[in-house]
Structures are given as C-alpha cells and as structure tokens.
Design a protein that fits this description.
Number of strands: 8
Strand content: 15-25%
Low-confidence stretches: none
CATH superfamily: Vaccinia Virus protein VP39
Bound molecules: S-adenosylmethionine
Structural class: alpha/beta
Number of helices: 11
Amino acid sequence: MTVHHPAPAPSEVKQRHRALWALGDYASVADVVIPGLGATLVEAGGVRARERVLDIAAGSGNASLWAARTGADVTASDLTPELLEAGRARAEAEGLHLRWDVADAEDLPYADADFDVVLSCVGVMFAPIHEAAAAELLRVCRPGGRIALANWTPEGFVGRLLATLKPWAATPPPGAQPPPLWGSEPHVRALLGDAVTDLRAERREVIVDAFATPEEFRRFFVERYGPTHAAHRSVAHDPAQQVALETAMDSLAADADEGGGTMRWEYLLVTATRT
Ligand SMILES: C[S@@+](CC[C@H](N)C(=O)[O-])C[C@H]1O[C@@H](n2cnc3c(N)ncnc32)[C@H](O)[C@@H]1O
C-alpha cells in the first residue's frame, strides 16, 4: 500500500497548514477525544459495501477506516502526509485496503462525479476558502450520491477553543473564513445551495471525559493538537504571553467542565443528497 502524491506542489499557505497539522500527535488526539465520531459519520452517510467513498481532510483515517470496515472502496485524502501515513499503518495492521492521497480540499485530484459518498469528519472545515472547498466536494460527488459532514460549531467547545487561540494564531490567508462557520446551519446551507436536496443538519455532542482537570486538558492539547501546539510555541520566549494563553485555555476547559472533567463538545452533523 502506498501513499499517493498526485497533487501539485502546495502553495506557501498550504505548506504552513500542512506543517501545523503535522505538529504534535493529531492521531492520538482523534483517538482520545473523538473515537466514535468517524463511525457516527459513516452511519449517517449510509455507507455500504462496494460504494466509492471519499473522506476529505481524513487525517489519520478516523472516518475512513470505519468506512473501509463496511467493505466500501475508500479513498482517504488530506493535506498532511504524516497523518495519512499514520492512517495507512493502522489500515495495514487491520488488513484494510484504502487509497491514501495527499490532496488539498480546495483542489481535489478527482474526476467529476467520481464518488458515491463524500464524507468529512471535522476536516473540510479547516480549508480556508469555504466556497472553494464546498465546490470541490460537490463536484466529485455523483448525482444522487450522499454527503455527510461533522463540523465543530462556533458555540461549541472547539469553536470556542479556536476563538480563544486567535490572538496567538498565525494570521489567516486573505479570504479565509473561520473554520467553525461550517458548524453553522445557514452557512452550510448557503455553501451547498441547490446542488443538494434533503439537507439535514442536527446539533450533536461528543462526551469528552479523558481529562480530569483543565490543566490536564491544556497540557495534552498543547503537546498534541497542531493549532494549540503552534500557538503555544509562538510564545515560547514570552513568559507573560505563555501564562495568558495557558490561563485562557484553562478557563475555557473549567467553564465547560460539568463535573469530574466531563465536557460536551458540540458539532453539526450534516447529511444531504447531491442533485
Ligand atoms: C481536526 S483534523 C480532522 C482529521 C480527521 N478527519 C479526523 O476525524 O480525525 C483536520 C484535518 O484537516 C486537514 N486539512 C487542513 N486543511 C486542509 C486542506 N486545505 N485540504 C485537505 N486537508 C486539510 C488537516 O491536515 C487535518 O488532518
């Protein structure tokens, strides 16, 4: 099994994004905080054996591996080769056969209508130009095919975390929109427009109880989650800013703690049929 590299050389912006997601250890973050979300998405998309399925911004295969377990013919695509490698190793260990493609969600290397089902699990939302990414996911889905997306909402924990990190994050490229807007139903309806029918959007939550204290959450996320790792690294030589960032992350987690470290992280589950 090989990782394919069909995409053209990424722009400087995409190289920065790729480096960001390769920081830390995202595969373990997915394992700890969203172990069941891939399965939920695959079920919502109604994935069946032998269907051609594309997972966009698949990371280490959180949803792709579940799709492959149904017997579907799965392509996992992502900007970050290191994450695809992690997914490929997992697939190999399980005897699953998937295709692993390095690809930008805004410029997918596939033919029109190539897939029966297009999925993205808290993934496509991170491509900066929403209209471009939406146009691509619609283009590669066949008429009558299905789209299923899980997107963190702006009001939910990850939406608030990304907003909290903003003062310490790299300046987004021109035209970029905030990732959690994909978790807003009106925004997704506008993005997919009349290229889909039967659009359903439901707010759901994942229960995260892996961190006993806010500090435990913060340490884990600073070490392993690209966006928080990068923000923290940017203030490595500024102790006051470091304290400010850590305090902001701790307050967020403390605010979300329902007792004993249990948190609910809201996402929008979107399903639709391509017209
Ligand atoms: C939060 S992770 C989600 C990964 C995976 N879908 C999961 O459920 O664990 C976000 C992913 O988006 C990918 N990504 C960011 N920008 C991208 C882009 N423009 N095109 C493709 N993938 C992108 C990152 O490399 C990363 O794997």
